[in-house]
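Changelog note: in this version the structure field was regenerated for every chain. One regenerated record is shown below for reference.
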Amino acid sequence: MILKSIRWRIQAWHGLILAGVLAGFGVPAYNQARDEQRRWIDQELNLRLDWLFRPAPPEGPPDEGPGERGFRPPLPRDPRALESDLVRSIRGLTAQGSFYVALWQTERGLLAQSPGAPKGIPPPSEAAGEGLRESGPRRGPFGPPRPFVGRTRGDLREVCIPLPGGLVAVVGRSIEDDRALMRRMGLWMLAVGVGIFLLGLAGGGWVAARAIRPIQVISTTAQKISAGDLSQRIDVADTESELGQLAGVLNTTFARLDASFAQQARFTADASHELRTPVTVILTQAQACLTRERSPEEYRETLEACERAAQRMRRLTQSLLELARLDAGEEPMRRERFDLGRVARESVELIAPLAGQRGIALETDLALAECLGDAEHIGRVVTNLLSNAIHYNCAGGTVTVAVRMEGDSGLLQVTDTGAGMSEEDQHHVFERFYRVDKSRARAEGRTGLGLAISKAIVDAHDGSIRVESTPGQGSTFSVRLPLARS
């Protein structure tokens, strides 16, 4: 379980990166310090050799022995004289602590070594090849700069310097104390690195916990919502961060989900209420007929009442089925060019008899507006708007239908001179089963789904529908549809 946690994965990656950085810094730093120490030892050995064989030293170093103070060898030009002077001088040296000197001749081998020098010093020629490349030149009392060989043998460090006449001087000392110092420094660097690593892990854990906290809040809120509490929202403190933006999107999604469930619950209750009335009528009429014998006229009246109730149920179920298909995107919508003005004209001709029965005058102002969509479904939208404008108009009123192009949209407007509606009604008029005049609409057998179906059809065409109304003056429904591109 812990391996699947994002927090511990972040912590593990942070630890690996931190360990890599510390190792990448510490190992080269330690190697650099070791190389610097070796170069310092080589320089010290070179200086020691220069001091021993300089022509006229003014004073010896503070740690020189009594046998070195009076040593002032000449610098003869004859290699044999130089050899004999160096051999005599080296044999005359006293023990110099950890330092020692030896003189080699390339053909005759070891010529002399100082007291205290270790036994079995290997010939300097064994390391001459790579040692010359390793260390580099030096400048001493024997002429121009000459290369020297640096080599390490166990706890000893030696430098081999070529001299005139095939001579090679070897000076060395023990580096046991230097290695102990490097070990202590390595342990100190390791301890510091471990401390930094642990401190970094603690800091990384704190940072990871803070980084993962919004995800935990989101997960907790989602669990509460999945349990049925749709009113829960994610508490977002930092809305500018990536997780804050994600939380904002999820809050918007949860709000829409809450509204959708509330609408679904309200829709189910309203549908049940609408279906209950015709079902009650049918049951009541049937039970009344079954209680006693009735005349043919009474049976006919009962059957007619049942038929009206059944017709109302049929219209309601058809509307519900159409809404369900529109919501699911299963209602086929053709994408063809059509003239919105022509569709509006056909709808006006279809609804004209109903307007005549109610004494409503129909006025049109229809221009060419070629839109893209399903002309049959848009015709149903126009018919629904005209039907509502006639039913909710006053006696002797007027309904005006206008079509024109406006920008990149085709605009359809249906205006009536009825009683209008309040601002609150305008906000809910496109909701399912919502009626502005509930008693009148039910008496006329209207389901309250016409505007909801119209809005679903317009939305499926990537259009928009809205209403503007003033109480006592009438209402205007506006439908915008995208124009067909040429």
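Spot check on this record: The mean pLDDT is 78. DSSP finds eleven helices and 13 strands in the chain.
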